[in-house]
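Technical annex, item 7. During the second reporting period the consortium partners agreed on a shared format for inverse folding records so that results from different sites could be compared directly. Each record opens with the tokenized structure and is followed by the designed sequence. A conforming record, contributed by the partner at site C, is shown below for reference.
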């Protein structure tokens, strides 16, 4: 490989000399190569796990005035100090507390003669720093940004140095106070990101801007600092592990005191993308002749990002679809103080849902998070923290933009910057980003049209259609607001089909990844979500997976299989599409197993490039039609599950449940008395029916009441059911039958009590107008429900606008009614379950097995309180067999505003169904 640069000789002899001098200079310029690198001494931990204790006092709230110790980094509220504040509360209710930190440190003699800086990676909010009683620099304002002070003239090498840091939770700058502590999220106090000292040579590299393109072209801008002793800068590209590429360094002379720019090309590099996160190191050396003064190493990816009007976002010449989510830096126990592993886990969690992008809402994240996005692969939008109004004043906005980009500008994962959020953009500084960012990435105004993007938040279905018909690239930076079980996956399939079917549909960012529930140290560890204000995520505060997790993973799966049912004439061929942006499906490994197989079979995916459609083929066993189901799993090249499909084999449905093969020992016994028809069968089962209506009134087994009654009742029809005409008769096989008919919507139904105790229901009803749901229902008091299981689609409940994310199988759940936003022990159990062949309910009084004879139908159990602001519908009763179920809304919108799947169901005319009920003892 050859790097070319103006002023660098291209002859082979010169090249050999330059390669040799690169390493010779390192030996000649000082005691060791280490001497020219930035030296670092941690004063804190890298996160809560290895935090270092400092002396601490807080001026207000809990433990005010107490001389104590506190781990750094941390939020002081999480260690029993001060008070809790949520940003979106009146200013007069926010607490004004200062935290006073003190720590002694000693410096190594090897640092003598060098510049020493103290670096803070994030402090909330105003930060005054004193070293040995002298101010290290001006008070820093802005809680989410790295800043440093040169303390060379304030330190001593003869003993301890005294560091004092005074942190004001509230900012003296009203625009920063409004932008950060008035935002719609928890606001804390403290030194919550790492603190360290660093030693630099007298002439040093202050910061760098790197633009590395997919074609190998490279542009590096070096900003020197300190004494103007250097006369040249050299740049070399290395593999991620530090192995030098077979190329000579680029070299540029220093002219004046401004930044130095170097250009060249690196042949043969592998481009970076979220799917192919190839990384390299760039070593940058500040030189005086052949003597090395300072060396820094940056990790980069060679990638080209383009915004093409009317066409989309392109990475390395390929159009990419943005499958994104908003994410806060947060853990319940530690607030915004995170360990590096927390950032890695968050990236892996996002990737596990087949997402490829993240919006850093609403501030620059920990650097460890961006490192993980580079390494694992996520596209990033990073943001200046201004939430709505007021905007940060121009002087401070310029300063903070510079701090943000100087720290993060070389991350290949960052594709966009955002100048605030939802009206919080100071338009005077839109051009400031390009002054610091050598890549000139697009600057967004989340929630409005800007830079060629329409980023409107929470567009309803009608607005989304309008935006997709417009000229701008459509990429809502927040959509389908999650609250409790609404939003996120509910409506996503409609939105995603619309966005991906249009050339200007780029993708979008769901709101939000995880619940921002803080563990309150003043309330015994209670998780507090500030009611419905704090972000409500796809997963809970400890990353408990909610039902929408599975829906998103399914819809965003890059192996796109549209087959929802296994066809009766299945020949082993499954149509699919490669939804990757870069990878060939040959890199996907498929594993499939028929029910009854001891182990799966494996096969690589078909040879399909990104965007191509084709077929995956498998050999069929001779008896496949007698198997219960077929399971197919797709894993990416690293062995991570993309998705698992499981289909029921046609004709194998357990629709009715078995009756005893042997003849009944005795027929059903019947008695009519006081308007009640009583039928007695085997195992002490007694069924009582209301003679006037035909409804089941009571079930007992061996004298014990089984709480299931008062049905069938029709739900979903507009008209009230009129009186029924009823009759009964004994059947030749010893069973007892009741027939009921009316002129109302529930036109007829019949009960059959079999001698072995099984109870059959057949029904016919009429739906003449649109409805949110329809079917039949019964009473089953929720207090008596212990658990249930089913054979059908799972593992979680569904809504009409969230049917994806399920697969056929057998599932069980304990029945509980969680309080929304409070109980995270498991997803809600009460709800609607799809494609049910068998549904078993364990009651305190007995067990009920239900076999719905409804192809593609649903079983509803219980009624869950979905939470404030969430619109959905529940039938009366507690247990229903339904032919249509309702959708669910989200925090901002009722279901009717969210697309086709979220609408009421049209009139269907006559609907027939059947159910078998089998009552047994409690288990």
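Designed sequence (site C submission):
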């Amino acid at each position: 490989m050859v790097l070319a640069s103006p002023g660098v000789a291209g002859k082979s002899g010169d090249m050999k000399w330059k390669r040799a001098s690169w390493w010779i200079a390192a030996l000649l310029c000082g005691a060791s190569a280490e001497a020219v690198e930035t030296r670092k001494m941690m004063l804190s931990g890298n996160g809560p796990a290895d935090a270092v204790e400092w002396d601490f006092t807080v001026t207000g709230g809990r433990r005010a005035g107490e001389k104590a110790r506190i781990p750094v980094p941390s939020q002081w509220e999480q260690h029993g100090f001060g008070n809790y504040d949520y940003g979106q509360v009146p200013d007069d209710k926010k607490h004004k507390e200062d935290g006073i930190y003190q720590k002694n440190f000693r410096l190594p003699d090897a640092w003598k003669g060098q510049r020493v800086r103290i670096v803070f990676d994030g402090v909330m909010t105003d930060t005054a720093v004193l070293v040995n009683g002298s101010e290290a620099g001006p008070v820093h304002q802005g809680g989410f940004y790295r800043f440093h002070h040169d303390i060379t003239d304030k330190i001593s090498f003869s003993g301890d140095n005294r560091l004092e840091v005074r942190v004001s939770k509230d900012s003296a700058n009203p625009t920063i106070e409004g932008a950060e502590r008035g935002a719609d999220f928890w606001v804390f106090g403290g030194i919550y990101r790492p603190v360290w000292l660093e030693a630099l040579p007298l002439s040093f590299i202050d910061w760098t801007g790197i633009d590395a393109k997919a074609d190998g072209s490279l542009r590096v801008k070096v900003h020197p600092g300190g004494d103007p002793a250097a006369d040249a800068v050299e740049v070399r590209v290395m593999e991620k592990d530090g192995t030098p590429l077979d190329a000579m360094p680029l070299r540029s002379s220093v002219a004046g005191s401004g930044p130095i720019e170097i250009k060249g090309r690196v042949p043969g590099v592998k481009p970076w993308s979220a799917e192919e996160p190839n990384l390299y190191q760039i070593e940058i050396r500040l030189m005086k002749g052949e003597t090395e003064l300072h060396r820094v190493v940056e990790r980069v990816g060679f990638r080209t990002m383009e915004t093409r009007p009317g066409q989309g976002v392109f990475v390395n010449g390929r159009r990419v679809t943005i499958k994104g989510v908003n994410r806060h830096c947060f853990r319940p126990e530690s607030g915004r103080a995170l360990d590096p592993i927390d950032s890695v886990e968050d990236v892996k969690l996002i990737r596990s849902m087949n997402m490829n992008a993240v919006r850093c809402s609403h501030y620059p994240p920990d650097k460890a998070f961006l490192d993980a996005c580079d390494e694992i692969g996520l596209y990033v939008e990073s943001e200046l923290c201004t939430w709505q109004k007021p905007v940060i004043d121009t002087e401070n906005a310029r300063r903070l933009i510079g701090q943000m980009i100087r720290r993060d500008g070389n991350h290949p994962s960052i594709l966009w910057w955002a100048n605030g959020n939802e009206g919080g953009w100071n338009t005077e500084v839109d051009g400031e980003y390009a002054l610091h960012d050598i890549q000139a990435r697009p600057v967004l105004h989340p929630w409005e049209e800007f830079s060629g993007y329409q980023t409107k938040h929470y567009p309803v279905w009608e607005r989304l259609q309008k935006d997709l018909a417009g000229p701008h690239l459509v990429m809502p930076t927040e959509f389908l607001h999650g609250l409790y079980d609404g939003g996120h996956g509910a409506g996503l399939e409609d939105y995603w089909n619309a966005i991906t079917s249009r050339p200007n549909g780029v993708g979008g960012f769901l709101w939000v990844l995880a619940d921002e529930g803080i563990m309150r140290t003043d309330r015994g560890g209670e998780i507090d979500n500030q009611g419905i204000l704090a972000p409500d995520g796809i997963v809970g505060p400890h990353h408990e997976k909610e039902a929408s997790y599975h829906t998103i993973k399914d819809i965003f799966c890059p192996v796109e299989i549209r087959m929802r049912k296994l066809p009766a004439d299945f020949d082993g061929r499954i149509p699919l599409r490669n939804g990757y942006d870069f990878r060939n499906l040959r890199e996907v490994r498929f594993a499939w197993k028929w029910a009854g197989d001891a182990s799966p079979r494996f096969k690589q995916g078909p040879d399909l490039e990104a965007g191509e459609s084709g077929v995956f083929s498998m050999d069929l066993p001779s008896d496949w039609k007698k198997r219960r189901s077929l399971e197919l799993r797709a894993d990416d090249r690293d062995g991570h599950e993309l998705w698992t499909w499981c289909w029921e084999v046609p004709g194998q449905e357990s629709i009715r449940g078995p009756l005893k093969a042997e003849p009944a020992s005795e027929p059903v016994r019947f008695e009519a008395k006081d308007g009640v028809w009583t039928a007695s069968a085997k195992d002490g089962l007694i069924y009582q029916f209301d003679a006037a209506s035909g409804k089941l009134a009571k079930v007992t087994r061996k004298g014990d009441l089984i709480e299931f009654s008062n049905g069938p009742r029709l739900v979903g029809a507009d008209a009230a059911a009129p009186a029924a005409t009823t009759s009964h008769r004994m059947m030749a096989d010893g069973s007892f039958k009741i027939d009921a008919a009316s002129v109302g919507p529930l036109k007829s139904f019949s009960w059959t009590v079999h001698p072995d105790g099984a109870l059959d229901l057949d029904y016919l009803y009429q739906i003449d107008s649109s409805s949110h749901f329809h079917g039949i229902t019964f009473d089953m008091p929720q207090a008596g429900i212990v658990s249930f299981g089913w054979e059908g689609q799972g593992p979680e409940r569904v809504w009409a606008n969230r049917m994806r994310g399920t697969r056929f199988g057998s599932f069980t759940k304990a029945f509980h009614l969680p309080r929304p936003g409070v109980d995270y022990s498991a997803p809600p159990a009460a709800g609607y379950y799809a494609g049910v062949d068998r549904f078993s309910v364990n009651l305190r009084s007995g067990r009920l097995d239900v076999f719905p004879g409804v192809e593609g139908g649903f079983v509803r159990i219980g009624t869950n309180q979905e939470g404030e602001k969430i619109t959905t519908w529940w039938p009366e009763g507690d247990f229903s067999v339904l032919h249509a179920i309702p959708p669910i809304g989200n925090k901002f919108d009722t279901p009717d505003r969210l697309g086709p799947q979220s609408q009421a169901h049209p009139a269907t005319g006559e609907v027939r169904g059947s159910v078998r009920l089998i009552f047994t003892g409690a288990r």
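Residues 1-33 have pLDDT under 50 and may be disordered. The chain is about 10% helix and 35% strand. All partners now use this format for quarterly exchanges.
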